[in-house]
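Session log. Operator J.P. requested a structure for one protein chain; no other inputs attached. Running the standard single-chain path with token output.
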Amino acid sequence: MKAQKVHLLIEEIPTIEQMKKSLLDLYDGWMCPICGLYDETFNHVWTCSGHYDIINNIRDKTINHLLTWILEYNDNIQDFNNLLALDIWDISYDPDVFTFIDLIKGIIPMSLSELLNSWTTKKNVVEVLIQMRQFIFNEIFENVWIPRCSHLKEFERSLGLTKKKKLEFKSVRSLPSNNSSNINIIHYDSLDSVRNYIYFGKNIIEFYTNLAS
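Structure written below.
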């Protein structure tokens, strides 16, 4: 769980775009497994139209829980407009301001902590923010990320693309040069036969034939 939180923070969960960094020839051209319309970047996972209602619901539940937790420490608060007006409740991506995507990453903006500090003690604020951060993490993984991964696995399975075949693909995507040591690697662009091998179980020898032609 700790590792998953770190991956969220540094935006390195295994999205399609992230996996292209190590298996570009395999995932080249693949789009978001949910909407199928856009590249699946880190930010797209949370702004995808297929996730809009889910993220919106998680945001609303987060606000409700936050209000409940704060009122447990200070039940004299009458006006929450300043809290509700914060940009952090915006579920869209904005490179210039903190939005709900930053809360998903685990980032707590100063605007939120300062406002909460005006209502209760610093110790109480820390406890509330820890609860909020954990709540968002649990909701995001259970309702967005895990279902997304299951959907992608089903799609890959329908193509015959298993973890074993991914490893096999990695082992054949490059070959050692005859004119250099084993450390030097020649990279090839002609990988259609490898894709056919993974997707449809065709003969992998076609790959080497293409290299020689």
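Operator note: Strands lie at 174-176, 185-187.
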